[in-house]
Amino acid sequence: AITGIIVFYLSAGLFFVFFSILIMPLLKDDSKFKYFFLRSFARWLMVFLFWGRVKVIGRENVPADGKLIIYANHKSKFDPGFVTQAIHRPHGYAVKSDLKEYPITKQIVESMRSFYIFREDNRETLKSLLYGIKMAEQGFAYVIFPEGGTMYRDQDKITEVRPGSFKIAERAQTDILPVSIIGSNFRKRKRCIFKPTLVTVVIHEVIPYEEIKDLTTNEISDKVIEVINSVL
């Protein structure tokens, strides 16, 4: 029985790799099937790697359309997968340029219309950011982790943010959707490998652009982070 389960998950993994490389490039950017596949892939990873599941609270708070930037805390490299399971509308990510070195990951993030952050090249980052702003102005949603990485793992709350993390929402004049990820900090939990894992994604109410249009970037940051941290 155990052998059968292992074979099943390995076969599913090979299918996802095949699909990512050969099929995803052929799908339209806003293909519902593409995002259904990505959510399924994220669920498969959650079960295969952590024997767990994602619980979503507040999914009804996700607008079906309109300009939107999603901000979330970031304590695990698997956080994008958890968010993608929770957000049922096309969305991309602000991702570090290192991911371009991995063909499958590169294929996935670029098919989601994500944009890269080049930490050693401000010019390339600006060019990439302008693309993100243009897409956000057209109503495409992006997920941004304002901490800029997973280096702040000593606690679940957001304590430090990257300068400029909230510029895209300000420049594109979008609504903001705060999201809290609870339980993804596996290193801190020192979880037994055979113990089931539960990650909870809390989707808060949208902060309309009208509420932040007269605020500074730092004030917007403080407002959003306060909401995210409120349940952590």
Q: Concise description?
A:
It is built from nine helices and seven strands, in the order H-H-E-E-H-E-H-E-H-E-H-E-H-E-H-H. The chain has helices at residues 2-23, 32-50, 79-86, 103-111, 122-137, 167-172, 186-189, 209-212, 217-229; strands at residues 52-57, 68-72, 91-96, 115-117, 141-144, 175-182, 197-203.
Could you explain how this protein is built, in words?
The protein has one domain: Glycerol-3-phosphate (1)-acyltransferase (3-Layer(aba) Sandwich). It has 9 helices and 7 strands. The protein is 44% helix and 17% strand. The chain has helices spanning 2-23, 32-50, 79-86, 103-111, 122-137, 167-172, 186-189, 209-212, 217-229; strands at 52-57, 68-72, 91-96, 115-117, 141-144, 175-182, 197-203. It has a 7-stranded mixed β-sheet with strand order 1-7-6-2-5-3-4, with helices on both faces. The relative contact order is 0.18. The model has no long low-confidence stretch (mean pLDDT 87). By secondary structure, it is α/β, with parallel strands linked by helices. Strand 3, helix 4 and strand 4 (115-117) form a beta-alpha-beta unit.
Helix and strand topology:
Layout: H1 2-23, H2 32-50, E1 52-57, E2 68-72, H3 79-86, E3 91-96, H4 103-111, E4 115-117, H5 122-137, E5 141-144, H6 167-172, E6 175-182, H7 186-189, E7 197-203, H8 209-212, H9 217-229
Parallel strand pairs: 1-7, 2-5, 2-6, 3-4, 3-5
Antiparallel strand pairs: 6-7
> What's the domain count?
1
What would you call the structural class?
alpha/beta
> Cα distance, first to last residue?
39 Å
Label the CATH architecture: 3-Layer(aba) Sandwich
Helix content: 40-55%
Number of helices: 9
Shape descriptor reads globular
Q: Approximately what portion of the residues adopt beta-strand conformation?
A: 15-25%
Q: What is the alpha-carbon Rg in Å? A: 18 Å
Element pattern in H and E: HHEEHEHEHEHEHEHH
CATH class: Alpha Beta
Quick one: how many beta strands? Answer: 7
